[in-house]
Design goal:
By secondary structure, this protein is α+β, with helices and mostly antiparallel strands. The chain folds into 2 domains: 6-57; 80-241, MucB/RseB, C-terminal domain (Phosphorylase Kinase, domain 1). Helices cover 43% and strands 20% of the residues. It contains 9 helices and 7 strands. The chain has helices at residues 15-20, 25-37, 39-57, 66-74, 80-94, 96-102, 114-128, 141-151, 233-241, and strands at 136-137, 166-174, 177-186, 189-197, 208-210, 213-220, 223-229. Strands 1-2-3-4-7-6-5 form a 7-stranded antiparallel β-sheet, with helices on both faces. Helix 2 (25-37) packs across helix 3. The radius of gyration is 30 Å and the shape is elongated. The chain starts with 14 loop residues before the first helix and ends with a helix. The relative contact order is 0.10.
Length: 243
Amino acid sequence: MHAPAPDCEAFADLLDAQADGALPPSAAQAVAAHLAACPHCAAEVAAIGALRAELAALPRPEPPPALAHRIRAALPAPPPRLAARREVFGLLAAGVAGLAIGGAGGWLLRGEPPVAGHDLLAAHRRGLLGGAPAQVASSDSHSVRPWLAERLPLSPNVPLPPGFPLQGARLDLVDGRVVAAVLYRRRAHLLTLFATAAPAPGWPTEVKTRQGFTLWPWIAEGVHYVAISDIPPSELAEFAAAN
């Protein structure tokens, strides 16, 4: 075996990076020139490459199914509001494509502060396009209301008016505020009942119709509600009256 050349020490720390192809061009060129004249270092680089090829060929055992659960259990629980925001942002990420299809710019409400008005209609639209499904799917208000109360600083009413079957609920984001979105059906139409603590700056305070959707707001027991759907306004009034 050849003894290392006197200048090999200058390249010793670069051989691993050379084998990985991780050196910048100027350094890689200098190391390559040295390897061409130094059989010792060239053999070192070849050995490194062979070892890594053998390691890459080894079978990779699957982690036990309970490992992920144990890791999650060992992590500190996030604060309730942070956990709620994580759930919301997960839904918003899933609905980005739907917003692009629906033309988000067309949903700005004239006469309303743009952020809150846009967010309410965009959130309802995401539900129509399937990008914001229920996080708790249930027709039982006694399941939906506690689920919301655990994640929000309020417990909104979850009515069960005849002809408006409850579908479930999710969390959504309106003007930077995490809010409740309770989901109903009216025949083949979706109805979303948004709820947040009053006062809610920028939220509608009177009935408005935009782009075929009616926004029907009311305030009860310190909660600001806005029901949104494309059903006839008279039917939306029937829903609101049940609250």
